[in-house]
Amino acid sequence: MTAESTSAENVQRISMFKVLNPFHVWALGVGIVLVGEFMGWNFSVAKGGAYGALIACWVIGLLYSCVAMIDSEVTSTVAAAGGQYTQAKHIIGPLMAFNVGLYLVMAYTMLEAADALIVGDLMTAVAAATGYEGLNPQPFVVLTIAFLAWLNYRGVFMTLTVNFVITLFAFLAIIALFVGSDPLNPGSVLKHSDLLTDLPYGWIGVVAALQFGMWYYLGIEGTCQAAEEVRSAGRAIPLGTIGGILTLLVAATLTWYVSTGLMPWQYLGQATTPLYDAASIIGNPSLQVVLFIGTMFAAIASANGCINDAARAWFSMGRDRYMPTWFGAIHPHYRTPFRAIIFLIPIAVSFAFTGLLDQVITFSILSGLLGYTFMSINMMKFRKMWPLGVIKRGYIHPFHPIPALVLLGLCSVVYFATFLGYGASLLSIMAFYIVASVWFVLRRYQFVKRGDQFTMPWPRPKGY
Amino acid sequence: MIWWDILSYAAWIISGLLLLWILADAISVSREFDEELLVSSREGADELLEQIKEEEGVR
Hints:
Chain A is mainly alpha-helical. Chain A has a single domain (29-392, 400-447), classed as Amino acid/polyamine transporter I. In chain A, 69% of the residues lie in helices and 1% in strands. Chain A has a two-stranded antiparallel sheet. Chain A is globular, with a radius of gyration of 22 Å. Chain A starts with a strand and ends in a 20-residue tail after the last helix. The model of chain A is unreliable at 5-9 (pLDDT under 50). Chain B is mostly helical. Chain B has one domain (2-58). Chain B is 80% helix and 0% strand. The termini of chain B are far apart. The interface between A and B is large, with 60 and 37 residues.
């Protein structure tokens, strides 16, 4: 144990290990997201047709590029776990911080549950393919969550090194599929000229497709949670995050290109595992195996990153007394937020046992969307309170305030798109967060020590 | 097929062992170490912050 001793207060403190580099940050962000390329994105095809899905892919790609740029700048100055929660605490205020913390925990825990469900369903599919019908997926769902929680408990370096390896494999599987589809000879394997059609439901279908376009990128903002454990937040977070969004833009575009060249939009829009189906159509057994393993790895990497991020968000809220301080403990040997990891295990298992994959994912997406809306407001306030030159930034995003305004505008359009398909879910999740906010104001806020939560040596903000 | 049944039982057993190990370790750590120490971490600092401190020191 290498607990630090602060001479001023003569108090022994422990902190998380600073062992991560930009590759780990990349693995955390891309790892959480990449499963969306293997499944889920294709529901946008059902809403808007193949071209509608491509528009959704790039428009939502723009939304997430803004997210990545804004996150990179703010997090390069806030070297603390908690990500957007910590940003909200410093820049906006306690109620926003509480809500953003809750968005993060809910979004990641639900995504983790959905990923574990996918692993269970894949095992059931393998069993069926080998002649065993009706395999219960639950033991594999629990094993996925238990093993990844154990890995996270034992240390962040191994957790994200594993994520790097399996995420890289999953990304290379997409590249292998692209190469295997003989893209240099259009018409030989890929039949875009036969399969691409006009927009089947017009432009309203394209708007509706935007909600599912989020599957291509949902979770890249999770890189911020590593800020307290990277060797240099100012360098590693921007490198890992911007590298991550570029990787995802490439992966998303290749995924769309190969899938729409092999399957008609009517089939693609309801397929469960579109990339595996694409490999099956190409008819190369090795490619099929690679894509199956890629799908499995992508789901595991996503669940792994989600446990990492949800636990750090919950831990940070505990550390600042937004939740009981008991959750703000760090393991003295492994230097992980061990109680937060343990607390979230039964919650993830419970969500997974509901089996309601689409509802769980919708709740996760909406929580993420609320977080992105906050980020645009947060960025405007950040630059106003601490203009350039006042505090050191590891990265300064260009064209401010355009990215923040574009992000706010695109979030509004996606809210409308979500309302079209999941209006009841949207309203119920809003009601959930309003009730939680009332609880925080009336019951929890009295325990928050305003002074104790700000330990970053920042200058007093402008106007305060 | 019996293979899949064995695999399912193995998954339950391994999950149970992993979760028990985590719980046992968490309890032993909570007993062994002072609670003040376990919850003593503060928001992180890195080279950017060190740089700021140095610059402020120079001024």
